[in-house]
Amino acid sequence: MKGIVLQRDQAAKIQLIDLPKPVCGPQEVLIQVKAAALNHRDEWCRKGLYPNLKDGVVLGSDGAGLVAELGAGVDPILIGKEVLINPAKNWGTNEKAQSRDFEILGMPSHGTLAEYIAVPADRIHAKPNHLNWEEAAALPLAALTAYRAVVVKGQVQAGDQVLVTGVGGGVAQFAAQFALALGAKVFVSSSSPEKLSQALALGASAGFNYLQLDWSAAALQQTGGMDLVIDGAAGDTLPNLMEVCKPGARIVFYGATRGNPGQLEARKLFWNQLQLIGTTMGSDADFLQMLQLVEKFTIKPVVDAVYPFSQAEQAFDRMKEGKQFGKITLVP
Ligand SMILES: NC(=O)c1ccc[n+]([C@@H]2O[C@H](COP(=O)([O-])OP(=O)(O)OC[C@H]3O[C@@H](n4cnc5c(N)ncnc54)[C@H](OP(=O)(O)O)[C@@H]3O)[C@@H](O)[C@H]2O)c1
Prior knowledge:
The chain is 28% helix and 27% strand. The chain is of the alpha/beta class and 332 residues long. Strand 14 (245-253), helix 8 (266-271) and strand 15 (275-278) form a beta-alpha-beta unit. The termini are close together. The chain binds NADP nicotinamide-adenine-dinucleotide phosphate. Residues 39-41, 44, 141-142, 145, 165-172, 189-192, 195, 210, 232-233, 237, 254-258, 280-281, 319, 322 line the site of NADP nicotinamide-adenine-dinucleotide phosphate (NAP). NADP nicotinamide-adenine-dinucleotide phosphate binds at residues 39-41, 44, 141-142, 145, 165-172, 189-192, 195, 210, 232-233, 237, 254-258, 280-281, 319, 322.
């Protein structure tokens, strides 16, 4: 079968190669991948900026497809089912945080950017009927992360004012859609006027260009402030995020695309009763609740582009350059 592996001695750092078709172990299922999707994690791997990298490992955490074969002990009813894969392995029993054995599909274990993948049977879920293959593949990692950030950690309430930063990102577009579905008034930021317009079309109330130095002062004046901020950039934007908050607001971080914050205005933090909250992906319970939310409100992931596996380098480059609005997907 064909698969896209990390290969750091190649100019592109990734390579489409022939690999043996995986064999199901006990309690595993073999999925014939119909579509897969990229996360920024895949690009961090290609850049060599992810821990414990191994060349020759199939990249990709997100995928959807058909159950093609069953390992010993798996219910035969699953054969032929249309499913998507939860890439979060070994979360553990503590809902507050993942266990030490927590792993994400697609490094160090083989991922979804291949024609077939073997996964534990408890990682698969029925594909929501209203989604096509690319939309279903776009869902797992980013939607799980956004669900936990907005609902579990952010505790969003109907009527809350919510800012989702960098709305062009894969996680961010889910965060905006989930907050809207739950009755929040959603504001967004982006580097791109076109992406801000796309977010307004999704239901956002207003957008701010974070490349403009005074964007947070303008946002505060225009909106009266946020109850909740969902951010995956961190870096030097932290003072802006704190400025745009109402007293008592929560800022939930799921990423640090822009690195560590240079400064933290501690007095502003405590005087304004702000909460800085970290979050990572989500538990199995979060995944189930995320799927229920997506089905209840027939939420559709925004698919930015669909590439064949043979054009994986272009797909990764699109993510590297931040050109996308929503999820970049690949098909075998
Ligand atoms: N903790 C977790 O479980 C978890 C899960 C998923 C992702 N992540 C991390 O979260 C980050 C985003 O992941 P992703 O897959 O959604 O990536 P992505 O699709 O590549 O999106 C990245 C987005 O970041 C935005 N951005 C860049 N600089 C910004 C700034 N200064 N202020 C605000 N936004 C900025 C851009 O938005 P515009 O294009 O709109 O300007 C860009 O589209 C990555 O660092 C990733 O590693 C963590």
